[in-house]
Amino acid sequence: CSRPQKVCLCPFLPIHPLKVSTCLYVIQHPAEESRVLRTVPLLAACLPPDKCKILVGRRFSEDRYPELATVCRNPSTLILYPGAEATNLEEVAVMPSNPLAMIIIDGTWSQAKDIFYKNPLFRLPKQVQLKTNISSQYVIRTQPTNTCLSTLECAAVALTIMEKNKSIQETILRPLQALCSFQLQHGAQIHHSKEHLLKNGLYDKPMPKNKRKLRRMELLVNNVKI
C-alpha cells in the first residue's frame, strides 16, 4: 500500500487478488491523481491487474484510446453513471449473460459530469446506476448526500451484484474502513455530507451566489434526488 508501517493497510487487503470475471475500467480525473487519500489504489490492490485498468485524463478520443473505444462499442459493456436514462444494475445483472466490462468515472460529481458528457465514447455503453440506501463509509471526505458513495464503494457494490458474491463487497471495503479508522486516530474529523450539514443548520460556508448551485443546495435540503 506504500504507506508508513504504523498506518499500513496491507493486513486489510486480500492475500490474493479477488477472482472476478468483470473487468473494471476506471476513468480518473487528473485532479484525483494528486489527492493523498484516494480509494482507487485500494480498489486496484484488491483486484487482478487485468481486471482493474485505470485511465487518467479528461478527454478520451477513439484515436488515442483504441482499446477503450473497442470496449465502449461492445454491447455487453456497462457504464456506471446515475441519471434518468440509467437502468438499475440489479435489473441488468439478472440477464443470462453478464457484461464483461464496466466503466466507472473517478472524480468529484462535477468532474465526473464533465467527463461523461464531453466524451462521446461514454455515451455508447448501456448506462446503469446503483439502487442502494447504504451510507458511505468514506467518512473522512465530504459527500454531497448521505448515500453518495466513493469510487471504491461503487465498485464494491457493483462487483457484488455482477459476480453474485456478497463477500466481494466486504473484502473491498475492509481497507477503506481501516484507512478511515487510522486517519481519525491521527486527528482527522468525520465529514458529514452537505445534505446532513444543511438539514441540521451546520453548514458554515457562504451559500453560493450561482443560482444553479444554490438550487442544488435547496434540493439537498428538501430530499429531492439530484
TrEMBL record:
One of its GO terms (biological process) is tRNA processing. It is an enzyme of class 2 (transferase). Its EC number is 2.5.1.25. GO terms for molecular function: tRNA-uridine aminocarboxypropyltransferase activity. It catalyses: a uridine in tRNA + S-adenosyl-L-methionine = a 3-[(3S)-3-amino-3-carboxypropyl]uridine in tRNA + S-methyl-5'-thioadenosine + H(+). Residues 1-188 form the DTW domain. Pfam families: DTW (PF03942). SMART domains: DTW. Keywords: S-adenosyl-L-methionine, Transferase, tRNA processing. InterPro entries: DTW (IPR005636), DTWD2/TAPT (IPR039262). Belongs to the TDD superfamily. DTWD2 family. This is tRNA-uridine aminocarboxypropyltransferase. It comes from Cuculus canorus.
